[in-house]
């Protein structure tokens, strides 16, 4: 499950809905620039975020377009790289030359990039968003680098008071790099001097930005804008084709609950239960615990998340409560926001009910919460190529092979999950439907602008 993409450019959204015309912006051009057409290549990823390179790559396309370059469509670029050269990842570009890339793609310039940082650190006293990368624009006719640049941008949201100020100073001191320097963007505070509440607010903001597919979007856009400020202007109208900026409506993506590893539930038994998940961040020695009621009925799945418990009873925020419903039987999903009685619909067939590849090897037997289980080592590979390794414990009693414990671990995190308070039987059908009185939210601003419903 993943989340939606959205735009907060209100004037553009209003014009789209009312049918008004907005003329394309006029940028300076250099008709003598030999790089008539440019392709932005897949980025090399030195981070642990699988979505970061695509986000940053898209923002660099926008930045080059705004510098009057004719930029080749990303999907067309990727198809040619895949079909003609067998390249799907930025790390594979070293296997060929810029000249060969230019010939295959039909461009005079190719932009290489390495994503060095793409992370949001949530500590409570301070929450820091960081995006950093370096880039090279290469002339495919000569193989020479025409331009290069590197920059990191960071934005802080800190707890009010001395604790937040001290954490901010320490964080800035640790982010120093003379080769690829950092720039701190204007930030803000959580509005609270309570560490737990500030942590919950930071975590909720982080989860929501990931949910809507907009995680670190503004920081990526600002990095692209700043790092290309000294890039020569492109040829503009003198190029063989022109690009007119297009504004698209928000794309709706499926939201994802906090990761609790691989759990084998579908097709076992219909049931309701409570998921207890603990995530250890090894780098920060920080642990986050979540308690989430779930309901499973064949291909139907529901999970309730209550962030207000971490925000010390603050139940008014639209983000403090979320309900995620997956209808694999209909290839449809919903995210419900009970505080505002709003919902978002998801229909991407690749993201609703998508099943990963699972390699499972039995390694023993144990008793978990009075249930006899078989313990398996698993390697789970998702469609995007991301994989997890760990262990699951499948019950061998009347739970019919249901996973009741999962333990996944890598160099950064250890996630341990238990399924408890299990009640066999088909949950009521209404749990997997949109309740009466809910209205559809078209995007982030629609959701946030709504007033909380009276209980």
What would your notes on this structure say?
The strands form two sheets. A twelve-stranded mixed beta sheet has the order 14-15-16-17-18-8-9-10-11-12-13-19, with no helix packed on it. With 455 residues, it is of the alpha+beta class. The longest helix is centred in the middle third of the chain and has 17 residues, at 195-211. It has eight helices and 19 strands. Strand 9 and strand 10 form a beta hairpin. The radius of gyration is 24 Å and the shape is elongated. The two termini are 29 Å apart. Helices cover 20% and strands 35% of the residues. It has helices at 10-18, 52-66, 74-85, 98-105, 162-174, 195-211, 217-227, 444-449; strands at 37-40, 44-45, 70-71, 109-122, 126-139, 145-158, 182-189, 271-281, 286-297, 300-306, 321-327, 332-337, 342-346, 357-368, 371-381, 387-395, 403-409, 413-424, 439-440. The protein has two domains: 23-238, ABC-type transport auxiliary lipoprotein component (Rossmann fold, 3-Layer(aba) Sandwich); 271-449, Lipoprotein localisation LolA/LolB/LppX (outer membrane lipoprotein receptor (LolB), chain A, Clam), CATH 2.50.20.
